[in-house]
Amino acid sequence: MSEPGGGRGFGSSVPQRAPWSLVAATAALCLVSATSVWTAGASPMSREEKQKLGNQVLEMFDHAYGNYMEHAYPADELMPLTCRGRVRGQEPSRGDVDDALGKFSLTLIDSLDTLVVLNKTKEFEDAVRKVLRDVNLDNDVVVSVFETNIRVLGGLLGGHSLAIMLKEKGEYMQWYNDELLQMAKQLGYKLLPAFNTTSGLPYPRINLKFGIRKPEARTGTETDTCTACAGTLILEFAALSRFTGATIFEEYARKALDFLWEKRQRSSNLVGVTINIHTGDWVRKDSGVGAGIDSYYEYLLKAYVLLGDDSFLERFNTHYDAIMRYISQPPLLLDVHIHKPMLNARTWMDALLAFFPGLQVLKGDIRPAIETHEMLYQVIKKHNFLPEAFTTDFRVHWAQHPLRPEFAESTYFLYKATGDPYYLEVGKTLIENLNKYARVPCGFAAMKDVRTGSHEDRMDSFFLAEMFKYLYLLFADKEDVIFDIEDYIFTTEAHLLPLWLSTTNQRISKKNTTSEYTELDDSNFDWTCPNTQILFPNDPLYAQSIREPLKNVVDKSCPRGIIRVEESFRSGAKPPLRARDFMATNPEHLEILKKMGVSLIHLKDGRVQLVQHAIQAASSIDAEDGLRFMQEMIELSSQQQKEQQLPPRAVQIVSHPFFGRVVLTAGPAQFGLDLSKHKETRGFVASSKPYNGCSELTNPEAVMGKIALIQRGQCMFAEKARNIQNAGAIGGIVIDDNEGSSSDTAPLFQMAGDGRDTDDITIPMLFLFSKEGSIILDAIREYEEVEVLLSDKAKDRDPEMENEEEQPSSENDSQNQSAEQIASGSQEVDLVDQEPPEESSLNSHPESLSPAVTDNAASISPSEQNFNPTENHETTSLDGECTDLDNQLQEQSETEEDSNPNVSWGKKVQPIDSILADWNEDIEAFEMMEKDEL
Ligand code: DMJ
């Protein structure tokens, strides 16, 4: 084994023509000199302030890690709202998301190298001992191969890398004898059976104890996997091979990569999102840089950096060229079809693509990195966090945010590349938002809905593995980290692997499939990490000058079609037809439709269906206009649909020790006080008697002036509301009687009236699923007096209290003070009013996406015809079956109380198969994100 730090370069395989490739090793190296050339722009941040922010990150990490260790360990993850461990099988299943959990103390392993980066060497030593003592890798549990590789194998290898570094320094870890590496090897062998396919692509899941296929394994029947799932193994597997000398791991990972490369779409050089692991056929042919593909690209470039193997760079550059040609529309990155790469596959972006600017820095392509990062930052400024998906005109498409680190990662790399203090300010905002909106007494909670500020009982392990590393390193000077970070490369989970591995145990036979297809010349290297002098030719304001034109890109966004309209106006050409202007009775419009390949089908029931066949368009420009028109039509219709729905509401616990920190997602009512129009209602809670609220209350004195808690069931919602209102309650919260139900696992719905006039109900009523409701009930048991705020969006806490709580006066204070102690400083919370949410739509669950549009045509066409736009494929009938989505919605409305036809999201909606097909594509994409990548 080479000496750490002994072989910083790439070994002899690095070509002479790329002397700069040494600086490509990490992004930090890429533009080191840029820091010193910076002279103006955003005000520089003082060393003191950077240190203060660094200390704040340390305190936040302690809060997250300390609560995990105290309340969750040895469970895989912390549930920060209920303050306990998430143990698979003991909580309601969240579906594929749970495949990351293998009963192997995931968060502890994922946090190992973070402890060293954050200079917590003593804690690292303790943590390693715990892993060696407690962690069992032989559980009868089916886990995701991808997640287990990046989080657990990567975590063990990152821990090992830093353990040997510390041991060599001579102070800590003197007892360490490669035990983490032995565990990593054991895990590596456990994952190998997944590769037993003819293609060499791994099965997506494996049973840690029984492997694949055997009946006991309960897995091995899958046929598809995502590209990132099959293509994100090489760093960990190669490191394992090189650390141990067992070449099989690197060989298997290379074989999977070789197969993906072979299968790329040859004319576009793009890959799809999902591939059949047996046949190699693309199952999903859309292609972007976010969910499902992201880290495949990342690993090609980083494999080159770590292993010094040209073929990886060649492949990366070939793909990168295609990405920049088809997917990159700065500042946007939009999915396309691999066979028709000029056509966008969707009109929204997902949050996972936020890692891409960081990768572009490593590549050395700074301009588009700055542009995309700036766009993402503006979305964050609007919603405090990056929603899981947002549209091209920056509306929230999927409102969840599980504290993902990708944006922090890109911010760190851009700062290293540009030295522009603007990126420090960005990091500061991220820290503030995390403390303000995600911090709860027992850790940090994911956002269930960035618009309402409501929480989810979830703190994913990647939050500790990645977020704190990148934030800490952003503010750290070289001397703040006890080793040289530039000797390591970050895996996709931010685990650290030493660059000296490039020259160790290079016994793998390399099959260079690349040159069969790509003619290599110097241009293949053109983009990669050029010299800093070329990037910043004496222009210290480089980054700022790129951001400037994008200053208001989000606030003043106009749909892309509008840009085209303006362009055509300037050029004198006729502007393309906009969906909102379309009238089915206007012959000129019908003519334009025809040119765009869009046909109009009059259905028997009087409705009209739109179908586009790009091939029938008069020209490729008309085909593009047609596609845009169809997309606009879908968006317009769904937007109108959403506008008819009530958005979710928030129940915020404001009394001690919560002080507004815990926010629960609540369903609204179609009757009673409308919280979006009125001020929020605040009050102490009291359980009604009878608890179901179905008859006159026997404890009016207890609920008088309070917010009554009532159990769901046995009578109509409106009846419950009348009974508690008559008893003097100022509001009501209906708690689901279905034990274990949660808005994590069930689509939210709105409570309907009882078919009678409900104007007499004047108090606000909200609905909580059982799990969210029990957080309030538990709080009553523990603290007796529990005060809540019912509103349309969680409100800020009192700024004074916030200062006391979140700006620790010294590092020691901050690290020793528990959140509860901090919070108990003030009982009086003066809540600040906020603007109502900007979107009136609700999509906190993919299932709640409203699928159809049919009743809204009046605003589009005076003829009150209904439109059924479909994208680019044939559709013949409107009478398609309801999809699962509709069935789920339907189910939600079939309870005894909610018999009103308007009760559940989208129930008013008439299903149309072609619209559903489009929405289903979105939903599938979301599901895939959950399934394959967290
Ligand atoms: C992490 O587990 C990894 O970064 C992965 O590649 C994608 N997403 C999550 C965090 O969002």
TrEMBL record:
<dbReference type="InterPro" id="IPR003137">
    <property type="entry name" value="PA_domain"/>
</dbReference>
<dbReference type="GO" id="GO:1904380">
    <property type="term" value="P:endoplasmic reticulum mannose trimming"/>
</dbReference>
<dbReference type="InterPro" id="IPR037322">
    <property type="entry name" value="EDEM3_PA"/>
</dbReference>
<feature type="domain" description="PA">
    <location>
        <begin position="688"/>
        <end position="774"/>
    </location>
</feature>
<comment type="function">
    <text>Involved in endoplasmic reticulum-associated degradation (ERAD). Accelerates the glycoprotein ERAD by proteasomes, by catalyzing mannose trimming from Man8GlcNAc2 to Man7GlcNAc2 in the N-glycans. May also participate in mannose trimming from all glycoproteins and not just misfolded ones targeted to ERAD. May have alpha 1,2-mannosidase activity.</text>
</comment>
<dbReference type="GO" id="GO:0006986">
    <property type="term" value="P:response to unfolded protein"/>
</dbReference>
<protein>
    <recommendedName>
        <fullName>alpha-1,2-Mannosidase</fullName>
        <ecNumber>3.2.1.-</ecNumber>
    </recommendedName>
</protein>
<feature type="compositionally biased region" description="Basic and acidic residues">
    <location>
        <begin position="791"/>
        <end position="800"/>
    </location>
</feature>
<dbReference type="GO" id="GO:0004571">
    <property type="term" value="F:mannosyl-oligosaccharide 1,2-alpha-mannosidase activity"/>
</dbReference>
<keyword id="KW-0834">Unfolded protein response</keyword>
<keyword id="KW-0325">Glycoprotein</keyword>
<feature type="active site" description="Proton donor">
    <location>
        <position position="147"/>
    </location>
</feature>
<keyword id="KW-0256">Endoplasmic reticulum</keyword>
<feature type="binding site">
    <location>
        <position position="492"/>
    </location>
    <ligand>
        <name>Ca(2+)</name>
    </ligand>
</feature>
<dbReference type="GO" id="GO:0005509">
    <property type="term" value="F:calcium ion binding"/>
</dbReference>
<dbReference type="InterPro" id="IPR046450">
    <property type="entry name" value="PA_dom_sf"/>
</dbReference>
<feature type="active site" description="Proton donor">
    <location>
        <position position="388"/>
    </location>
</feature>
<dbReference type="InterPro" id="IPR001382">
    <property type="entry name" value="Glyco_hydro_47"/>
</dbReference>
<dbReference type="InterPro" id="IPR036026">
    <property type="entry name" value="Seven-hairpin_glycosidases"/>
</dbReference>
<comment type="similarity">
    <text>Belongs to the glycosyl hydrolase 47 family.</text>
</comment>
<keyword id="KW-0732">Signal</keyword>
<keyword id="KW-0106">Calcium</keyword>
<comment type="pathway">
    <text>Protein modification; protein glycosylation.</text>
</comment>
<dbReference type="Pfam" id="PF01532">
    <property type="entry name" value="Glyco_hydro_47"/>
</dbReference>
<feature type="region of interest" description="Disordered">
    <location>
        <begin position="791"/>
        <end position="910"/>
    </location>
</feature>
<dbReference type="GO" id="GO:0044322">
    <property type="term" value="C:endoplasmic reticulum quality control compartment"/>
</dbReference>
<dbReference type="InterPro" id="IPR012341">
    <property type="entry name" value="6hp_glycosidase-like_sf"/>
</dbReference>
<dbReference type="GO" id="GO:0016020">
    <property type="term" value="C:membrane"/>
</dbReference>
<feature type="active site">
    <location>
        <position position="406"/>
    </location>
</feature>
<feature type="compositionally biased region" description="Low complexity">
    <location>
        <begin position="809"/>
        <end position="818"/>
    </location>
</feature>
<feature type="compositionally biased region" description="Polar residues">
    <location>
        <begin position="840"/>
        <end position="870"/>
    </location>
</feature>
<keyword id="KW-0326">Glycosidase</keyword>
<dbReference type="GO" id="GO:0005975">
    <property type="term" value="P:carbohydrate metabolic process"/>
</dbReference>
<dbReference type="InterPro" id="IPR044674">
    <property type="entry name" value="EDEM1/2/3"/>
</dbReference>
<feature type="active site">
    <location>
        <position position="294"/>
    </location>
</feature>
<dbReference type="Pfam" id="PF02225">
    <property type="entry name" value="PA"/>
</dbReference>
<keyword id="KW-0378">Hydrolase</keyword>
<keyword id="KW-0479">Metal-binding</keyword>
<dbReference type="GO" id="GO:0036503">
    <property type="term" value="P:ERAD pathway"/>
</dbReference>
